[in-house]
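Field: sequence (string)
Field: structure_tokens (string)

Example rows 1 and 2, in order.
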Amino acid sequence: MVLENWEYDPSSLDLLNYYRISSNAVYPFMYNGQVRILRFCPCNEKDKSNIIGELEFIRYLYSKGYPALHTVKSKNNQELLQVHTPWGDYFAFVFERVAGIQLGETDYTCDICRKHGKYLGRLHKLSSEYKPPNTMRHSYEDVLIWAERELLNFNIFYDNTADTLNIIDFDDAMYHWYIMDICQALDSIMNDGCCADFSSMNACFFEGYREEFDVSDDIVAN
């Protein structure tokens, strides 16, 4: 019922069985042979302004050439819909599936770790220059520094063909300290079994990060 608002290949509906539900319901399907993802959530559980802010930020990243997910407009040319169903009202939108495999499933080398840091540094640089056109995201203790949701390994896909990373999840993004994202990324590297030598990976990560955005020696040392 929700999917009817977008174009899709009827032959691909079996893919809907491979859904995932957490804070959002996520369903894969296909259109013209390309995988797309339907995401929706109950209206009474999400703030519409925060979803709009998420989509605005994604559009900004896309306009800057950053490899984040790309949204797909509905049949009536809207990005975000409020859909009425017998089970309640839902906010819904669709995005194209990014290329690659989850970072945690790769052979996590120092080169990939450097890219991990580089892409986070680039994201922070773009975030520092971002001026929301309409909607301000929710803040934490009034810290007015934009930061996306932490880059955990399951939110990052490595495309071996293009040798790039693709980022998929900006839900629940907020204004926060950049160090939060750095700590979360490094914690994910250390605890997800990505590497045997964390000190080397830590150095590679910050080498990549500093290619795009500045970070103090104190933060690196700690």
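Row 2 begins here:
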Amino acid sequence: MTWWQWCGHGGLVVLAVVMLWKGADLFVDIATRLARRWNMSELTIGVILVGFGTSAPEFAVSIDAALRGQSDLSVGNVVGSNIFNLGFILGSCALIRPILTNRTMVYRDGFFLVVVTVLLSFLLGDLSLGRWDGLLLFSLLMAYLTMLLWHKGVVEESEPHADVVSHALEDAGAAPPLWRELAVGLLGLALVILGGDWLVYSAEFLAKGFGLSTWVIGVTVVAAGTSAPELVVSLNAALKGRFALSAGNLIGSDIYNLLGVLGVAAMIHPMHLDAAAHQSILVLVIMVCLVVFFMRTGWRVGRLEGATLLLINMARWGMDIFSNGGKG
């Protein structure tokens, strides 16, 4: 491989991440405008559109990888992204400003995330994820969304989604023509899809060039890249003191990733993983349980706890790269 090939694929990774981030941003903004134009409730907009929007890069990358038969990249992207969300992003937010939590965030969303994460670890115990497993995961997502929509008062108590929507609507101003909104929305979706395809293509090339397994590339570099929307939303929220949004965005995104992204990917193409997956899945289970524990103790995630989450994430990266880099 020549130096120009290395630079070309490295640049393509950066470009793909920018496309994923900007595409998801455009998609969420336009989807919010359209939903309001068609008289959808703010509750529906927040729960469904914002949650899906921040997970759109993971969805695009994992589905594209599944279609290419790259199971390690597909699942590794989701597992790594979820660890990155809770370890690096939530940890960084807590260092900037301690994150206040509430009962709804912990007992409803947090505990549900623990349950589905543990469930996924059992489903992946044999290093495979079949179509029936995918159907189960996706069905749980539908049940969760139905529960949120049914218990309207409970959803509004948690604040994060409504907060996103209210700020989006404040920024929206006068509505432009419908055709323009549809065109911009399609552009955002196209950027996400194309960016996901380019990221998968370059990740495969770089993995082979560095002698790393596809799983390691997926669970580290690709995962961090697809978490760009969550990083932007949560850091901005933390800086503005919007604590529920900062943490709620990450928990909601992780739930979408585990149930929606992996559910659909497994239904499209059954997954068979490298043995290195066990290590990262165990770290994910520990990270999720630790985050919910931190959120419950004192109803906040403080700076010391944030630093702990960051260190775990950094240690996990090193462990994945140096222990499993050459496998697969």
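free_text_note (row 2): The CA atoms of residues 208 and 236 lie 36 Å apart.
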